[in-house]
Amino acid sequence: MIANTIKQKYMAPTLRQKIKLSHFFYLLLTCGFLSLFLFPYLYLMLSSFKPPREVISSTPAFLPSQFTLDNYLAMFNQLSIGKYFGNSLVTAAFATLLSVLLGALAAYGLTRFSSKLGNLFLIFTLGVRLIPLISVAIPLYRIIGEVGLMDTKLALTLIYTSINIPFVIWMMLGFFDSLPKELDESARVDGCGMLGAFIRIILPISLPGLATTAIFSFMLSWNDFLFGLLFTSTSAKTVPVGISEFLTAYNMDLGPMTAAATLFSLPVMLFSFFMQNYIVRGMTMGAVKE
Amino acid sequence: MTKKDRRLSIVFFLPAAVFMILFFVYPMFLLFKNSFLEDDQPYGFVGFEHYSNALTSQTFYRSLLNTFEFVIGAVTVELLLGMVLALLLSTGFKGSNYIRTLLLSPLMISPLVAGLIWKFMLNDQFGILNSFLYKLGLISSPQSILWLSDSKYALLSCMIADIWLTTPFMMLVLLAGIQGIPESLYEAARIDGTNKVQSFWHITLPSLKPVILVAVAIRMIDAARSFDIIWVMTQGGPNNASSLVSTDIYKAIARYNQEGYSSAMAIIFMIILLGLCSFFMKHFWSSAKKAA
User: Fold this and answer.
1) Are B93 and A26 within 8 A, CB to CB?
2) What is the Cα–Cα distance from B153 to B146, expressed in whole angstroms?
3) CATH number at residue A198
4) What is the pTM of this model?
5) How deeply is A176 buried, as exposed, middle or buried, from its count of CB atoms within 10 A (0-12, 13-18, 19+)?
6) What is the pLDDT of residue A17?
7) What is the number of CB-based contacts under 8 A between chain A and chain B?
8) Contact A60 B128 (CB under 8 A)
9) CA A158, CA B214: separation in Å to the nearest integer?
10) How far apart are CA A235 and CA A238, in angstroms?
11) ipTM of this model?
Protein backbone atom coordinates (compact mmCIF):
# COMPACT_ATOMS: atom_id res chain seq x y z
CA MET A 1 0.00 0.00 0.00
CA ILE A 2 2.63 2.47 1.08
CA ALA A 3 4.92 1.26 -1.63
CA ASN A 4 2.15 1.92 -4.09
CA THR A 5 1.65 5.53 -3.04
CA ILE A 6 5.39 6.12 -3.10
CA LYS A 7 5.50 4.67 -6.56
CA GLN A 8 2.66 6.91 -7.63
CA LYS A 9 4.19 9.94 -6.05
CA TYR A 10 7.81 9.59 -7.07
CA MET A 11 8.38 6.94 -9.68
CA ALA A 12 5.83 7.15 -12.43
CA PRO A 13 5.12 10.73 -13.38
CA THR A 14 1.51 11.40 -14.18
CA LEU A 15 0.58 12.71 -17.60
CA ARG A 16 0.37 16.25 -16.32
CA GLN A 17 3.82 16.09 -14.82
CA LYS A 18 5.13 14.65 -18.06
CA ILE A 19 3.74 17.63 -19.96
CA LYS A 20 5.21 20.05 -17.45
CA LEU A 21 8.58 18.34 -17.66
CA SER A 22 8.62 18.46 -21.44
CA HIS A 23 7.53 22.07 -21.31
CA PHE A 24 10.43 22.85 -19.05
CA PHE A 25 12.76 21.22 -21.53
CA TYR A 26 11.25 23.24 -24.40
CA LEU A 27 11.65 26.41 -22.37
CA LEU A 28 15.34 25.71 -21.77
CA LEU A 29 15.97 24.87 -25.41
CA THR A 30 14.19 27.96 -26.68
CA CYS A 31 16.04 30.14 -24.21
CA GLY A 32 19.27 28.72 -25.57
CA PHE A 33 18.31 29.76 -29.10
CA LEU A 34 17.05 33.10 -27.82
CA SER A 35 20.38 33.96 -26.24
CA LEU A 36 22.16 33.06 -29.49
CA PHE A 37 19.87 35.40 -31.38
CA LEU A 38 20.03 38.26 -28.92
CA PHE A 39 23.76 38.08 -28.29
CA PRO A 40 25.01 39.86 -31.45
CA TYR A 41 22.79 42.86 -30.99
CA LEU A 42 23.40 43.16 -27.25
CA TYR A 43 27.12 42.89 -27.90
CA LEU A 44 26.98 45.75 -30.39
CA MET A 45 24.96 47.89 -28.01
CA LEU A 46 27.15 47.20 -24.97
CA SER A 47 30.32 47.75 -27.01
CA SER A 48 29.15 51.21 -27.97
CA PHE A 49 29.35 52.18 -24.27
CA LYS A 50 32.82 50.74 -23.75
CA PRO A 51 35.89 52.94 -23.52
CA PRO A 52 37.20 53.16 -27.14
CA ARG A 53 40.29 51.03 -26.54
CA GLU A 54 38.16 48.17 -25.18
CA VAL A 55 36.18 47.97 -28.41
CA ILE A 56 39.37 47.08 -30.26
CA SER A 57 40.86 44.93 -27.53
CA SER A 58 42.30 41.62 -28.69
CA THR A 59 40.68 39.94 -25.69
CA PRO A 60 37.15 41.27 -26.10
CA ALA A 61 34.74 41.14 -23.17
CA PHE A 62 30.97 41.12 -23.35
CA LEU A 63 30.43 43.80 -20.73
CA PRO A 64 32.11 47.21 -20.68
CA SER A 65 34.47 47.72 -17.71
CA GLN A 66 32.89 51.14 -17.33
CA PHE A 67 30.09 52.94 -19.13
CA THR A 68 31.28 55.91 -21.18
CA LEU A 69 29.90 57.95 -24.05
CA ASP A 70 33.34 58.40 -25.63
CA ASN A 71 32.41 56.45 -28.75
CA TYR A 72 29.32 58.59 -29.20
CA LEU A 73 31.33 61.79 -28.81
CA ALA A 74 33.89 60.56 -31.33
CA MET A 75 31.11 59.67 -33.71
CA PHE A 76 29.50 63.10 -33.44
CA ASN A 77 32.88 64.69 -34.13
CA GLN A 78 33.61 62.64 -37.22
CA LEU A 79 30.18 62.50 -38.78
CA SER A 80 27.43 65.05 -39.40
CA ILE A 81 25.13 62.38 -38.06
CA GLY A 82 22.37 64.87 -37.28
CA LYS A 83 22.15 65.87 -40.92
CA TYR A 84 22.15 62.25 -42.07
CA PHE A 85 19.37 61.42 -39.63
CA GLY A 86 17.41 64.35 -41.02
CA ASN A 87 17.93 63.10 -44.58
CA SER A 88 16.92 59.54 -43.70
CA LEU A 89 13.86 60.73 -41.83
CA VAL A 90 12.66 63.17 -44.49
CA THR A 91 13.10 60.80 -47.44
CA ALA A 92 11.56 57.82 -45.64
CA ALA A 93 8.62 59.84 -44.29
CA PHE A 94 7.71 61.48 -47.59
CA ALA A 95 8.15 58.25 -49.51
CA THR A 96 5.85 56.51 -47.02
CA LEU A 97 3.20 59.21 -47.27
CA LEU A 98 3.24 59.24 -51.06
CA SER A 99 3.39 55.49 -51.58
CA VAL A 100 0.66 54.69 -49.05
CA LEU A 101 -1.61 57.32 -50.57
CA LEU A 102 -1.08 56.31 -54.20
CA GLY A 103 -0.83 52.60 -53.45
CA ALA A 104 -4.04 52.54 -51.40
CA LEU A 105 -5.87 54.48 -54.10
CA ALA A 106 -4.70 52.00 -56.74
CA ALA A 107 -5.50 48.95 -54.60
CA TYR A 108 -9.00 50.25 -53.95
CA GLY A 109 -9.58 50.87 -57.64
CA LEU A 110 -8.35 47.37 -58.43
CA THR A 111 -10.66 45.66 -55.93
CA ARG A 112 -13.75 47.64 -56.89
CA PHE A 113 -13.56 47.60 -60.67
CA SER A 114 -12.08 44.76 -62.60
CA SER A 115 -10.64 45.59 -65.96
CA LYS A 116 -8.08 43.98 -68.22
CA LEU A 117 -5.78 46.94 -67.81
CA GLY A 118 -6.13 46.67 -64.04
CA ASN A 119 -5.27 42.98 -64.03
CA LEU A 120 -2.26 43.60 -66.20
CA PHE A 121 -1.13 46.29 -63.80
CA LEU A 122 -1.59 43.91 -60.87
CA ILE A 123 0.53 41.19 -62.45
CA PHE A 124 3.16 43.77 -63.26
CA THR A 125 3.38 45.00 -59.67
CA LEU A 126 3.84 41.41 -58.52
CA GLY A 127 6.57 40.90 -61.10
CA VAL A 128 8.44 43.90 -59.76
CA ARG A 129 9.28 41.89 -56.64
CA LEU A 130 11.31 39.53 -58.76
CA ILE A 131 13.48 42.28 -60.20
CA PRO A 132 16.80 42.69 -58.39
CA LEU A 133 16.84 46.34 -57.33
CA ILE A 134 20.38 46.74 -58.58
CA SER A 135 19.19 46.24 -62.14
CA VAL A 136 16.79 49.20 -61.82
CA ALA A 137 19.61 51.16 -60.27
CA ILE A 138 21.88 50.87 -63.33
CA PRO A 139 19.70 52.86 -65.78
CA LEU A 140 18.48 55.16 -62.99
CA TYR A 141 22.11 56.07 -62.31
CA ARG A 142 22.32 57.84 -65.68
CA ILE A 143 18.73 59.16 -65.68
CA ILE A 144 19.13 60.80 -62.28
CA GLY A 145 22.43 62.30 -63.35
CA GLU A 146 21.01 63.67 -66.59
CA VAL A 147 18.05 65.39 -64.96
CA GLY A 148 20.40 66.91 -62.38
CA LEU A 149 18.93 65.21 -59.33
CA MET A 150 22.09 63.43 -58.20
CA ASP A 151 22.63 63.80 -54.45
CA THR A 152 19.17 65.27 -53.76
CA LYS A 153 16.56 64.15 -51.27
CA LEU A 154 13.95 64.50 -53.99
CA ALA A 155 15.53 61.76 -56.11
CA LEU A 156 15.75 59.38 -53.15
CA THR A 157 12.15 60.12 -52.11
CA LEU A 158 10.83 59.42 -55.60
CA ILE A 159 12.83 56.21 -55.92
CA TYR A 160 11.72 54.95 -52.50
CA THR A 161 8.12 55.83 -53.34
CA SER A 162 8.15 53.75 -56.48
CA ILE A 163 9.82 50.82 -54.72
CA ASN A 164 7.17 50.93 -52.00
CA ILE A 165 4.10 51.30 -54.22
CA PRO A 166 3.87 47.67 -55.43
CA PHE A 167 4.33 46.54 -51.87
CA VAL A 168 1.58 48.85 -50.58
CA ILE A 169 -0.79 47.70 -53.32
CA TRP A 170 -0.37 44.04 -52.38
CA MET A 171 -0.83 44.65 -48.70
CA MET A 172 -3.87 46.89 -49.11
CA LEU A 173 -5.57 44.55 -51.59
CA GLY A 174 -6.21 42.08 -48.80
CA PHE A 175 -7.66 44.71 -46.51
CA PHE A 176 -9.97 46.21 -49.11
CA ASP A 177 -11.10 42.79 -50.29
CA SER A 178 -12.26 41.95 -46.79
CA LEU A 179 -14.47 45.06 -46.56
CA PRO A 180 -18.08 44.43 -47.64
CA LYS A 181 -18.98 46.04 -50.97
CA GLU A 182 -22.34 47.17 -49.54
CA LEU A 183 -20.39 49.67 -47.49
CA ASP A 184 -19.30 51.82 -50.39
CA GLU A 185 -22.57 51.23 -52.21
CA SER A 186 -24.52 52.69 -49.33
CA ALA A 187 -22.10 55.60 -49.21
CA ARG A 188 -22.81 56.25 -52.87
CA VAL A 189 -26.55 56.12 -52.26
CA ASP A 190 -26.02 58.75 -49.60
CA GLY A 191 -24.61 60.99 -52.26
CA CYS A 192 -20.85 60.40 -52.03
CA GLY A 193 -18.98 59.95 -55.29
CA MET A 194 -16.57 57.03 -55.67
CA LEU A 195 -13.70 59.18 -54.51
CA GLY A 196 -15.80 60.60 -51.67
CA ALA A 197 -16.74 57.10 -50.51
CA PHE A 198 -13.08 56.13 -50.58
CA ILE A 199 -11.88 59.11 -48.59
CA ARG A 200 -14.76 59.37 -46.09
CA ILE A 201 -15.72 55.74 -45.52
CA ILE A 202 -13.07 53.31 -46.71
CA LEU A 203 -9.88 55.03 -45.58
CA PRO A 204 -11.00 55.59 -41.96
CA ILE A 205 -12.11 51.97 -41.64
CA SER A 206 -8.82 50.68 -43.03
CA LEU A 207 -6.66 52.64 -40.62
CA PRO A 208 -5.16 49.53 -38.96
CA GLY A 209 -4.22 48.17 -42.36
CA LEU A 210 -2.83 51.51 -43.43
CA ALA A 211 -0.77 51.69 -40.24
CA THR A 212 0.77 48.27 -40.83
CA THR A 213 1.52 49.14 -44.43
CA ALA A 214 2.99 52.49 -43.48
CA ILE A 215 5.33 50.87 -40.93
CA PHE A 216 6.68 48.52 -43.58
CA SER A 217 7.04 51.24 -46.21
CA PHE A 218 8.91 53.39 -43.77
CA MET A 219 11.26 50.57 -42.76
CA LEU A 220 11.92 49.66 -46.38
CA SER A 221 13.19 53.19 -47.06
CA TRP A 222 14.85 53.74 -43.67
CA ASN A 223 16.87 50.54 -44.04
CA ASP A 224 17.87 51.11 -47.65
CA PHE A 225 21.59 51.16 -48.33
CA LEU A 226 22.05 50.52 -52.05
CA PHE A 227 20.25 53.57 -53.43
CA GLY A 228 21.70 55.85 -50.80
CA LEU A 229 25.17 54.57 -51.68
CA LEU A 230 24.67 55.11 -55.41
CA PHE A 231 22.70 58.34 -55.51
CA THR A 232 24.01 60.48 -52.67
CA SER A 233 27.43 61.90 -51.89
CA THR A 234 27.31 64.85 -49.51
CA SER A 235 24.11 66.84 -49.17
CA ALA A 236 21.54 64.00 -49.26
CA LYS A 237 23.59 61.27 -47.60
CA THR A 238 21.53 58.93 -45.40
CA VAL A 239 22.56 57.30 -42.11
CA PRO A 240 23.39 53.82 -43.50
CA VAL A 241 25.81 55.33 -46.02
CA GLY A 242 27.36 57.46 -43.29
CA ILE A 243 27.84 54.48 -40.97
CA SER A 244 29.35 52.34 -43.70
CA GLU A 245 32.12 54.90 -44.11
CA PHE A 246 33.55 53.97 -40.73
CA LEU A 247 34.58 50.69 -42.27
CA THR A 248 36.51 51.15 -45.45
CA ALA A 249 39.51 49.22 -46.62
CA TYR A 250 41.85 51.83 -45.13
CA ASN A 251 40.00 52.73 -42.02
CA MET A 252 38.30 50.66 -39.33
CA ASP A 253 36.80 52.94 -36.74
CA LEU A 254 34.97 50.28 -34.81
CA GLY A 255 34.21 52.34 -31.70
CA PRO A 256 32.30 55.17 -33.40
CA MET A 257 30.78 52.59 -35.77
CA THR A 258 29.16 50.70 -32.87
CA ALA A 259 27.81 53.99 -31.54
CA ALA A 260 26.33 55.03 -34.88
CA ALA A 261 24.87 51.59 -35.57
CA THR A 262 23.26 51.52 -32.13
CA LEU A 263 21.82 54.98 -32.53
CA PHE A 264 20.45 54.05 -35.95
CA SER A 265 18.87 50.74 -35.00
CA LEU A 266 17.79 51.13 -31.39
CA PRO A 267 14.69 53.23 -32.22
CA VAL A 268 13.75 50.58 -34.77
CA MET A 269 14.19 47.78 -32.23
CA LEU A 270 12.10 49.53 -29.61
CA PHE A 271 9.50 50.51 -32.14
CA SER A 272 9.12 47.00 -33.53
CA PHE A 273 9.01 45.68 -29.98
CA PHE A 274 5.99 47.82 -29.11
CA MET A 275 4.27 47.67 -32.49
CA GLN A 276 4.78 43.97 -32.85
CA ASN A 277 1.16 43.07 -33.40
CA TYR A 278 1.00 45.27 -36.46
CA ILE A 279 4.27 43.98 -37.78
CA VAL A 280 3.39 40.34 -37.25
CA ARG A 281 0.13 40.84 -39.11
CA GLY A 282 1.90 42.50 -42.02
CA MET A 283 4.60 39.87 -42.30
CA THR A 284 2.34 36.85 -42.19
CA MET A 285 -0.23 38.32 -44.54
CA GLY A 286 1.65 37.45 -47.68
CA ALA A 287 2.22 33.82 -46.79
CA VAL A 288 -0.63 32.76 -44.51
CA LYS A 289 -4.27 33.30 -45.30
CA GLU A 290 -6.26 34.41 -42.31
CA MET B 1 -19.73 48.34 -65.62
CA THR B 2 -20.60 51.65 -67.19
CA LYS B 3 -18.22 53.66 -69.30
CA LYS B 4 -17.97 56.24 -66.55
CA ASP B 5 -16.95 53.58 -64.04
CA ARG B 6 -14.24 52.33 -66.32
CA ARG B 7 -12.86 55.79 -66.73
CA LEU B 8 -12.98 56.25 -62.97
CA SER B 9 -11.09 53.01 -62.32
CA ILE B 10 -8.24 54.30 -64.43
CA VAL B 11 -8.19 57.50 -62.36
CA PHE B 12 -7.69 55.35 -59.27
CA PHE B 13 -4.58 53.57 -60.38
CA LEU B 14 -3.19 56.08 -62.83
CA PRO B 15 -0.97 57.98 -60.32
CA ALA B 16 0.59 54.73 -59.10
CA ALA B 17 0.96 53.53 -62.68
CA VAL B 18 2.80 56.71 -63.66
CA PHE B 19 5.35 56.07 -60.92
CA MET B 20 5.74 52.45 -61.98
CA ILE B 21 6.26 53.45 -65.60
CA LEU B 22 8.80 56.16 -64.79
CA PHE B 23 10.82 54.13 -62.28
CA PHE B 24 10.42 50.54 -63.44
CA VAL B 25 9.15 50.19 -67.00
CA TYR B 26 11.26 52.92 -68.54
CA PRO B 27 14.47 51.93 -66.67
CA MET B 28 13.90 48.28 -67.63
CA PHE B 29 13.56 49.31 -71.25
CA LEU B 30 16.78 51.33 -70.97
CA LEU B 31 18.53 48.43 -69.25
CA PHE B 32 17.63 46.16 -72.14
CA LYS B 33 18.65 48.74 -74.74
CA ASN B 34 21.93 49.65 -73.02
CA SER B 35 23.00 46.03 -72.77
CA PHE B 36 23.58 46.18 -76.55
CA LEU B 37 25.45 49.50 -76.50
CA GLU B 38 29.03 50.58 -75.77
CA ASP B 39 29.96 51.48 -72.20
CA ASP B 40 31.08 54.99 -73.16
CA GLN B 41 30.13 57.71 -75.52
CA PRO B 42 29.09 57.61 -78.34
CA TYR B 43 27.25 54.51 -77.08
CA GLY B 44 27.54 52.65 -80.38
CA PHE B 45 25.76 49.38 -81.03
CA VAL B 46 27.86 46.33 -80.09
CA GLY B 47 25.32 43.53 -80.44
CA PHE B 48 25.76 40.67 -78.00
CA GLU B 49 29.35 41.54 -77.11
CA HIS B 50 28.58 42.34 -73.45
CA TYR B 51 26.60 39.13 -73.12
CA SER B 52 29.38 37.00 -74.54
CA ASN B 53 31.90 38.85 -72.34
CA ALA B 54 29.83 38.11 -69.26
CA LEU B 55 29.20 34.50 -70.16
CA THR B 56 32.88 33.84 -70.80
CA SER B 57 34.06 35.71 -67.71
CA GLN B 58 35.45 33.63 -64.86
CA THR B 59 34.45 36.31 -62.37
CA PHE B 60 30.85 36.32 -63.47
CA TYR B 61 30.62 32.53 -63.22
CA ARG B 62 32.16 32.68 -59.80
CA SER B 63 29.55 35.22 -58.71
CA LEU B 64 26.69 33.19 -60.15
CA LEU B 65 27.93 30.12 -58.35
CA ASN B 66 28.44 32.07 -55.12
CA THR B 67 24.94 33.53 -55.36
CA PHE B 68 23.52 30.05 -55.83
CA GLU B 69 25.51 28.73 -52.88
CA PHE B 70 24.52 31.70 -50.73
CA VAL B 71 20.81 31.32 -51.49
CA ILE B 72 20.65 27.55 -51.02
CA GLY B 73 22.84 27.53 -47.90
CA ALA B 74 21.21 30.44 -46.12
CA VAL B 75 17.59 29.57 -46.94
CA THR B 76 18.03 25.90 -46.00
CA VAL B 77 19.40 26.76 -42.57
CA GLU B 78 16.78 29.47 -42.09
CA LEU B 79 14.00 27.00 -42.92
CA LEU B 80 15.29 24.29 -40.58
CA LEU B 81 16.08 26.64 -37.72
CA GLY B 82 12.84 28.54 -38.22
CA MET B 83 10.89 25.28 -38.17
CA VAL B 84 12.53 24.09 -34.95
CA LEU B 85 11.81 27.43 -33.27
CA ALA B 86 8.22 27.53 -34.55
CA LEU B 87 7.56 23.99 -33.31
CA LEU B 88 9.06 24.79 -29.92
CA LEU B 89 6.99 27.94 -29.56
CA SER B 90 3.82 26.25 -30.79
CA THR B 91 3.85 23.90 -27.77
CA GLY B 92 2.71 26.95 -25.82
CA PHE B 93 4.86 26.45 -22.73
CA LYS B 94 4.70 29.10 -20.05
CA GLY B 95 6.50 32.22 -21.20
CA SER B 96 6.51 31.25 -24.88
CA ASN B 97 4.74 34.50 -25.73
CA TYR B 98 7.48 36.59 -24.17
CA ILE B 99 10.19 34.58 -25.85
CA ARG B 100 8.46 34.98 -29.19
CA THR B 101 8.35 38.75 -28.70
CA LEU B 102 12.06 38.82 -27.87
CA LEU B 103 12.99 36.52 -30.74
CA LEU B 104 11.21 38.82 -33.16
CA SER B 105 12.96 41.97 -32.03
CA PRO B 106 15.80 41.78 -34.62
CA LEU B 107 13.16 41.48 -37.34
CA MET B 108 13.29 45.06 -38.54
CA ILE B 109 17.04 45.63 -38.25
CA SER B 110 18.55 46.75 -41.51
CA PRO B 111 20.75 44.29 -43.43
CA LEU B 112 23.47 46.92 -43.24
CA VAL B 113 23.53 46.87 -39.43
CA ALA B 114 23.40 43.06 -39.46
CA GLY B 115 26.46 43.06 -41.69
CA LEU B 116 28.24 45.56 -39.44
CA ILE B 117 27.51 43.54 -36.29
CA TRP B 118 28.92 40.36 -37.79
CA LYS B 119 31.86 42.13 -39.33
CA PHE B 120 32.60 43.36 -35.82
CA MET B 121 32.16 39.94 -34.19
CA LEU B 122 34.15 38.07 -36.86
CA ASN B 123 37.00 40.57 -37.04
CA ASP B 124 40.47 39.02 -37.42
CA GLN B 125 42.11 40.87 -34.56
CA PHE B 126 39.40 41.68 -32.05
CA GLY B 127 36.44 39.49 -32.99
CA ILE B 128 34.63 38.01 -30.04
CA LEU B 129 33.69 34.76 -31.79
CA ASN B 130 37.28 33.64 -32.25
CA SER B 131 38.05 34.71 -28.72
CA PHE B 132 35.20 32.44 -27.53
CA LEU B 133 36.33 29.51 -29.62
CA TYR B 134 39.86 29.98 -28.34
CA LYS B 135 38.73 30.03 -24.71
CA LEU B 136 36.73 26.87 -25.29
CA GLY B 137 39.88 25.30 -26.70
CA LEU B 138 38.34 24.68 -30.12
CA ILE B 139 40.98 26.64 -32.02
CA SER B 140 44.66 26.98 -31.27
CA SER B 141 44.94 30.77 -31.43
CA PRO B 142 42.42 33.65 -31.63
CA GLN B 143 43.62 34.32 -35.18
CA SER B 144 43.42 30.80 -36.56
CA ILE B 145 40.14 31.35 -38.41
CA LEU B 146 40.19 34.47 -40.55
CA TRP B 147 36.45 34.61 -41.11
CA LEU B 148 36.39 37.55 -43.49
CA SER B 149 39.78 37.47 -45.18
CA ASP B 150 40.14 33.74 -45.79
CA SER B 151 38.48 32.78 -49.07
CA LYS B 152 37.29 29.53 -47.49
CA TYR B 153 35.16 31.30 -44.90
CA ALA B 154 34.18 34.66 -46.41
CA LEU B 155 30.94 33.53 -48.05
CA LEU B 156 30.03 31.42 -45.03
CA SER B 157 30.44 34.46 -42.79
CA CYS B 158 28.02 36.45 -44.94
CA MET B 159 25.57 33.54 -44.80
CA ILE B 160 25.74 33.54 -41.00
CA ALA B 161 24.77 37.21 -40.91
CA ASP B 162 21.87 36.61 -43.29
CA ILE B 163 20.68 33.61 -41.26
CA TRP B 164 20.80 35.61 -38.06
CA LEU B 165 18.80 38.43 -39.63
CA THR B 166 16.04 36.48 -41.35
CA THR B 167 15.43 33.31 -39.35
CA PRO B 168 12.93 35.23 -37.14
CA PHE B 169 10.88 35.97 -40.27
CA MET B 170 10.86 32.31 -41.22
CA MET B 171 9.90 31.33 -37.68
CA LEU B 172 7.09 33.87 -37.61
CA VAL B 173 5.52 32.71 -40.86
CA LEU B 174 5.82 29.02 -39.96
CA LEU B 175 4.40 29.63 -36.48
CA ALA B 176 1.38 31.42 -37.96
CA GLY B 177 0.94 28.48 -40.31
CA ILE B 178 1.17 25.91 -37.50
CA GLN B 179 -1.33 27.81 -35.39
CA GLY B 180 -3.73 27.79 -38.34
CA ILE B 181 -3.87 23.99 -38.47
CA PRO B 182 -7.18 22.85 -36.94
CA GLU B 183 -6.73 21.17 -33.54
CA SER B 184 -9.31 18.53 -34.51
CA LEU B 185 -6.79 16.95 -36.89
CA TYR B 186 -4.38 16.31 -34.01
CA GLU B 187 -7.16 15.04 -31.74
CA ALA B 188 -8.30 12.55 -34.33
CA ALA B 189 -4.71 11.37 -34.73
CA ARG B 190 -4.27 11.06 -30.97
CA ILE B 191 -7.32 8.80 -30.79
CA ASP B 192 -5.77 6.68 -33.51
CA GLY B 193 -2.69 6.40 -31.33
CA THR B 194 -0.12 8.32 -33.33
CA ASN B 195 2.87 9.76 -31.51
CA LYS B 196 4.28 13.26 -31.83
CA VAL B 197 6.83 12.45 -34.51
CA GLN B 198 4.21 10.73 -36.64
CA SER B 199 1.75 13.58 -36.32
CA PHE B 200 4.50 16.00 -37.37
CA TRP B 201 5.22 14.05 -40.57
CA HIS B 202 1.61 13.24 -41.40
CA ILE B 203 -0.31 16.29 -40.22
CA THR B 204 1.88 19.33 -39.54
CA LEU B 205 4.20 19.07 -42.52
CA PRO B 206 1.57 18.37 -45.22
CA SER B 207 -0.76 21.09 -43.90
CA LEU B 208 2.16 23.50 -43.77
CA LYS B 209 3.41 22.79 -47.28
CA PRO B 210 1.83 25.84 -49.00
CA VAL B 211 3.08 28.14 -46.25
CA ILE B 212 6.59 26.68 -46.47
CA LEU B 213 6.62 27.08 -50.24
CA VAL B 214 5.59 30.73 -50.16
CA ALA B 215 8.02 31.54 -47.35
CA VAL B 216 10.90 29.76 -49.09
CA ALA B 217 10.09 31.44 -52.41
CA ILE B 218 10.01 34.89 -50.80
CA ARG B 219 13.27 34.26 -48.97
CA MET B 220 15.03 32.79 -52.02
CA ILE B 221 14.20 35.82 -54.14
CA ASP B 222 15.32 38.21 -51.40
CA ALA B 223 18.52 36.28 -50.70
CA ALA B 224 19.38 36.24 -54.40
CA ARG B 225 18.99 40.01 -54.49
CA SER B 226 20.95 40.71 -51.31
CA PHE B 227 23.72 43.23 -51.52
CA ASP B 228 24.07 45.19 -48.26
CA ILE B 229 25.36 42.40 -46.03
CA ILE B 230 28.01 41.24 -48.48
CA TRP B 231 29.08 44.73 -49.44
CA VAL B 232 29.62 45.83 -45.89
CA MET B 233 31.28 42.61 -44.70
CA THR B 234 33.66 41.66 -47.52
CA GLN B 235 32.87 43.78 -50.62
CA GLY B 236 32.88 40.45 -52.41
CA GLY B 237 36.45 39.65 -51.45
CA PRO B 238 38.96 38.23 -50.92
CA ASN B 239 39.59 37.53 -54.59
CA ASN B 240 35.88 37.36 -55.40
CA ALA B 241 35.47 34.50 -52.94
CA SER B 242 32.23 36.01 -51.64
CA SER B 243 31.13 38.11 -54.59
CA LEU B 244 27.49 37.82 -55.59
CA VAL B 245 26.03 38.91 -58.91
CA SER B 246 24.69 42.02 -57.17
CA THR B 247 28.13 43.10 -55.91
CA ASP B 248 29.62 42.39 -59.34
CA ILE B 249 27.03 44.61 -60.98
CA TYR B 250 27.56 47.32 -58.39
CA LYS B 251 31.31 47.33 -58.96
CA ALA B 252 30.89 47.45 -62.74
CA ILE B 253 28.56 50.43 -62.60
CA ALA B 254 29.89 52.45 -59.66
CA ARG B 255 33.63 51.81 -59.98
CA TYR B 256 34.28 51.19 -63.65
CA ASN B 257 31.28 52.96 -65.20
CA GLN B 258 30.57 49.95 -67.42
CA GLU B 259 26.93 50.66 -68.08
CA GLY B 260 26.51 48.29 -71.00
CA TYR B 261 28.35 45.40 -69.39
CA SER B 262 26.51 45.73 -66.07
CA SER B 263 23.18 45.93 -67.93
CA ALA B 264 23.96 42.68 -69.73
CA MET B 265 24.88 40.99 -66.42
CA ALA B 266 21.62 42.22 -64.88
CA ILE B 267 19.58 40.89 -67.81
CA ILE B 268 21.25 37.47 -67.62
CA PHE B 269 20.72 37.38 -63.88
CA MET B 270 17.03 38.27 -64.19
CA ILE B 271 16.45 35.62 -66.84
CA ILE B 272 18.03 32.99 -64.59
CA LEU B 273 16.00 34.18 -61.56
CA LEU B 274 12.75 34.17 -63.51
CA GLY B 275 13.47 30.77 -64.95
CA LEU B 276 14.27 29.25 -61.57
CA CYS B 277 11.24 30.90 -60.00
CA SER B 278 8.81 29.66 -62.58
CA PHE B 279 10.34 26.18 -62.40
CA PHE B 280 10.10 26.20 -58.61
CA MET B 281 6.51 27.42 -58.63
CA LYS B 282 5.37 25.08 -61.38
CA HIS B 283 7.08 22.05 -59.96
CA PHE B 284 6.32 22.40 -56.27
CA TRP B 285 3.19 24.48 -56.45
CA SER B 286 1.25 22.03 -58.60
CA SER B 287 2.30 19.10 -56.41
CA ALA B 288 1.24 21.07 -53.33
CA LYS B 289 -2.12 21.75 -54.91
CA LYS B 290 -2.59 18.09 -55.73
CA ALA B 291 -1.79 17.15 -52.14
CA ALA B 292 -4.21 19.68 -50.73
Assistant:
1) yes
2) 7
3) 1.10.3720.10
4) 0.88
5) buried
6) 61
7) 292
8) yes
9) 30
10) 9
11) 0.87
